[in-house]
Amino acid sequence: MVNITYYDLEIEGFEGVVFSSNTAKTRYTLNFKGIPYHTEWVTFKSLKEIIPKVVPYEGRPTVPVIVSDGKGIRESWDIANYLEETFPDKPSVFNGNPGVHKFFEVYCYKNITVNIYKLVVLDIQERSGDKEWHRQDREKMIGMSLEKFAGHPDDHKPALKEALTPIHAVLQKYPFVTGEKAGYSDIVLAGAFVTLNVVRPDLFHSHLLDLFGDDVLSNWWKRTEFFRQ
């Protein structure tokens, strides 16, 4: 039996709660496939010391990371591929079409995840546990102050609605983004959504679920509970 340790990120006030879109993709993939695992929680401060000891790194250490029978694997996409190859008897998240799911992951990150991040970045900054490092790291990454990047929450509703429009159209006809059965694209989108649901629940309906004035996204969100537990 393969033993898996999964490293996830927590912030102040949400200890032991999944909030990161990146780590959620790995947790949800493990849940979807029904693979047992043990969670090790890290913070923005502790991951800088812990993760380089778990898996070799060049540059800034990040999560998710899993250790499977002593082998460290990082990056959610690489982890998903590893789990598909290592557990072929478990339900597939790719269903034979990894390229389609990779396309969706890139689309979701550029058009949905980034705009959701703008809604939560200042709250994450306050809860980071290492405010000076977190601000410097994130402002270097995005190329501007966190405040300018965040703007006003309503600034980002049009972009989110536009990005979600084709997804909403699919979900009007099918129960999942990937059609009749859930797949990795649903995992990716749910990972993006959970960040707002946890960090800014006051915006979750107004800026995501209720953007189209119907219950299409809300019903999809409920249907993904089986891998979000």
From TrEMBL:
**Which interval of the chain is the signal sequence?**
none
Q: What Pfam families does the record tag this protein with?
A: GST_C_7 (PF22041), GST_N_2 (PF13409)
Q: Which intervals hold domain GST N-terminal?
A: 10-91
| Cited InterPro entries | Glutathione-S-Trfase_C_sf, Glutathione_S-Trfase_N, GST_Omega/HSP26, GST_UstS-like_C, Thioredoxin-like_sf
| Cellular component, GO annotation | cytoplasm
Q: What is this protein called?
A: GST N-terminal domain-containing protein
